[in-house]
Amino acid sequence: MNTTRALIESALLTAIAVVLVLVSIYVPIFYFIGLFMWPLPIALIQIKHGYKYSFISLIATTIIVLLFTDPYTALGFAITNGILGIVLGIMIKRKESAINTIFVMIIINIISVTISIKIFGLIAGQDYIKLILDEFYNSIDTAKSFYEKLGIQKDLYENALKSIPPKEMLMMLIPFAIFSHGFISAMITYILAKNIYSRFGIELDGIPKFSNWYIPIKLAISIMFIVLIGYIASYFKIKNADAILLNSMYLMLVVFAVNGLAALSFWFDKQGISKSLKVVLLVFAFVFLGNILFLIGVADYSLNLRKLDKSRIRHSPK
């Protein structure tokens, strides 16, 4: 009886996974919503019925998606979202904390995306990232020509196009981009899982309120160590040293800027600012005041202004 129930539930969830993938692909408006939901059916199978059924579901979903799309899409789903779903299910079943679960999801995302890029490159016989960037910059050149033919003044579009970094710089920032994708994907997928799984009686650990986000000492030291390695590698002109330094600098800037944004959110809460206005102000600050947020983040971390890192309060001199 239990086997029959497991088979039926796994089959239904597999069908849902297939529908999510196909709808996301063929109806572009749903793509980004579906992209973060792809792992959820397989994760639920893992939670309820274990490895056997989750792996069978992953294989079945991949084959069906392959029939309706192409090997790249099907393989990409299996390597990234399928494996992520199984790992998410394992972490939830073990009742891991939200921070631990999201951290593991980020690592899985980074590894799976990197593997996917390498496999696609081998299949295509060329650098997959370089191919995408070449198409992107070719489209910019096409847009320039189009605007010139229309007689539009160069000043109206040249300034906007100048803000786009050179191709060489974007190539060097691929590791940072993969990390950013991994973090955002893990966060959104976990939030969706928490909201959806609660309907099935599965309660997930809550993510700390954004105002209470802070940089632990170990994370800060790790980032500073990576930056230091980048500087040393650049000084001795080691291969790819510039890429290491650039990615480590961007990582440090973003992490401390987010910490600054959390500190600003904390202050807004203290002032009793409404939620809607707070969101508008935080978005404005993040888009236009990144450097100031970085400084706020550094100050908040250095002085523990919000007193959120209890270990530093405990070990501070009386």
Could you walk me through the main structural features you see in this protein, from its secondary elements to its overall organization?
The protein has helices spanning 2-26, 31-37, 39-49, 51-68, 71-93, 98-124, 128-150, 154-162, 167-172, 174-197, 217-235, 241-271, 275-288, 290-303, 310-314. It is built from 15 helices and no strands. The model has no long low-confidence stretch (mean pLDDT 85). It is globular, with a radius of gyration of 23 Å. Helix content is 81%, strand content 0%. The chain folds into two domains: 1-125 and 171-207, Orthogonal Bundle (Arp2/3 complex 21 kDa subunit ARPC3), CATH 1.10.1760; 208-318, no CATH class. Helix 6 (98-124) crosses helix 10. It has 318 residues and is mainly alpha-helical.
Question: In terms of topology, how is this protein built?
Answer:
Elements: H1 2-26, H2 31-37, H3 39-49, H4 51-68, H5 71-93, H6 98-124, H7 128-150, H8 154-162, H9 167-172, H10 174-197, H11 217-235, H12 241-271, H13 275-288, H14 290-303, H15 310-314
Helix pairs in contact: 1-2, 1-3, 1-4, 3-4, 3-5, 4-5, 5-6, 6-10, 11-12, 12-13, 12-14
Transmembrane segments: 12-38, 50-68, 74-92, 99-124, 169-192, 213-236, 248-267, 279-299
Pfam family, one: DUF2232
Keywords: Membrane, Transmembrane, Transmembrane helix
User: The CATH topology of the largest domain is what?
Assistant: Arp2/3 complex 21 kDa subunit ARPC3
State Rg: 23 Å
**Count of helical segments?**
15
Query: Could you say what the CATH architecture of the largest domain is?
Result: Orthogonal Bundle
Number of β-strand runs = 0
Shape: globular
What number is the mean pLDDT? 85
CATH class of the largest domain: Mainly Alpha
Proportion in helices: over 70%
Low-confidence sequence ranges:
none
Structural class: mainly alpha
Beta-strand share of residues = under 5%
State the domain count: 2
Sketch the major β-sheet: none
